[in-house]
Amino acid sequence: MSDETTDGVGGFEHLLSEVARNVPTQSPYASVTSIDRAGVVDLSFGLPAPSLLPIEGLSSAMTTVIETDAEEALQYGGGRYADLLPNIVHEHLANRGIDVDDLEITNGSSHALDGVCRTFIEPGDSVAVGIPTFTGVLQVFGNHGADIVPVPVDEDGLDVAALERLIDEREYAGKPVPKLVFVIPNFQNPTGATLSVSRRQRLLSLAQRVGCLVVEDDVYGDLRYEGETPPTLTGIDENDRSLHIGSFSKTVAPGVSTGWIAGPEGLVSRIRPMLSPGTPLLTRSILAAYSEDGQLERRLTLVRESYRARRDRMLRALDRHLPPEASWIRPSGGFFVWIQLPDAIDTTPLLERAVENGVVYLPGAMFHPDDSPRSTLRLSFSYVDRQDIDHGVAALGETIRLALDTDA
Ligand SMILES: Cc1ncc(COP(=O)(O)O)c(C=O)c1O
Question: How far is the CA of 408 from the centre of ligand 1 (A)?
Answer without folding.
Answer: 39
